[in-house]
Amino acid sequence: MHFLNPMLQNHPMESAFIQTWLNRLADKYSSNLFSNFSSDSVSANSEMFIDVYDSLYEGAIYRDFLHSDSKVQALSICNGQLLNIGTFDAVYQDAKRRPAMLRIHSLQGGEVITPSCVTVHSYLVEAALCRGYADIGLFGLCGSAKRVMHDYNLSYLFNTMDYLNSSLDKGDCLFCFGLDPYLLNWGKPLCALNVDALDELALERPVCIVSNNFSMAFVNSALLEKIEQSAIGRSPAFSGFIESIKALGYVDAEGMSILPWAFSDKELLGQLGTLPSTFNTIVDQGKKRGISYFEVALQSHFVELLFDNLTQSTSDKHRFSTYYTYQTHIDDLARVDHCEVMKTSQLERLDEKVSVAITIGRLATCGYKWVHEYHYDELFVPCNRILHNGSNLCLHSDFPREPLCPLRLAEIATERDIEAMPENYSCDERTLDSGQCLTRLHALAAITHGAARHAKVPSFNQIGGAAHYMKLDHDPLIDNTRWRDIKAVLL
């Protein structure tokens, strides 16, 4: 049984804003927009090679993170398939018997091979759509930084808007998303971003700043005039939309469905046209951080159509699977997705038949807010309690709200440090419930085999199946290097 978590029901990528935006894009969609899209990957060489990786002299190879004694001497891979794993002699002799050229790769000092990462329930299509614009959240304009910004404030926002304004053509809309209203001003009202305040900036173009959960936005008069000139501007809904903004100073959740009408037909076609390159950029970025498999959340048939178009030319189709958020899934493993807060009574109902996907990255960015809004009998990302009940644990990023960096998530799970917090707090106060910290093995397992089980990745690292391994430049179980700084290369 698939249990929809309350957090999932209000997921940003399924907001009224995104739904209206997708509906407008669907009206302009044409398969011709994707007809010239071809994969940048080089065609596979007809000559087959068997790659044998060994750790006889230096480095280490971890078969998995499920046990402390999971080290092996060697593994062999051919055309993305795991052929063998075990002692060097057994792997080498098996490879010699096969009809393919043999290549030996000996690990160097500090290098290790481990299972690669799986990211679940990622909204890649919607993220590619948003990434065509600036991200003014905690992780930089591209939303890909591995650490939160500690100078995230109104001054940063105004400087960013000035920078973006100078880079746009005349008449273009200054559209940006990812704003965290709470952390930008530590819970205080953002009067500096109401309609009048944005008009006073005299940016001479429409301005739209959307929050990271797509539940509110800050706009100027030029953007409201642009919407009024669209088809929605002649509807009764528009007058109520304007009255609400006059009363609040910003666009509330109910009015978010009106905002996508600020995009002209030309802009919508441009957004569809740039989707392939933005999608590829996101996937490539994930691969460079050790992600070999993406489970893509599909919230509508149109998103599914776009996803099929975006992956039609890729040679890595086995690296993707889909999960339909608008359907109920009945199987032998109950899923709980996008979990942040759980009550004790909910935890007591978990058992070995349940798989829980924890958005652990939210602890680093929203832990301070949760502490100040604490409700009795609730636990924030209770990782150890979930494992204690025998349930499968998966750590995921809630992408695109958090960057694609699984090793960062595992690091957060072992330390539970709140990164976005006023500077006048001590180190002890920055650690949220240290009793829920995961061991290194459990944290690494949760972004590899735990995530693979949650997404039902077929034959994950089983002999004869697809090989999901990566090479790291530091050993996460021995080296003291920060995990989020470790460089990863997929085998």
Give a written overview of the molecule.
The chain is an alpha/beta fold and 491 residues long. The chain is 33% helix and 20% strand. The chain contains 17 helices and 22 strands. The protein has helices at residues 6-9, 16-28, 88-96, 124-130, 154-167, 181-185, 195-200, 221-228, 236-248, 265-287, 301-311, 344-348, 361-372, 383-388, 406-415, 440-447, 449-455, and strands at 2-3, 49-54, 60-62, 71-72, 74-78, 81-86, 101-106, 112-115, 117-122, 134-135, 174-179, 207-211, 217-219, 291-298, 320-324, 334-339, 341-343, 354-358, 378-380, 392-395, 469-472, 488-490. It has a five-stranded mixed β-sheet, with no helix packed on it. A four-stranded parallel β-sheet has the order 1-16-18-20. A four-stranded mixed β-sheet has the order 6-5-2-7, with helices on one face. A hairpin with a 5-residue loop joins β12 and β13. α4 (124-130) crosses α10 (265-287) and α15 (406-415) packs antiparallel against α16 (440-447). It is globular. The model is unreliable at 1-9 and 39-44 (pLDDT under 50).
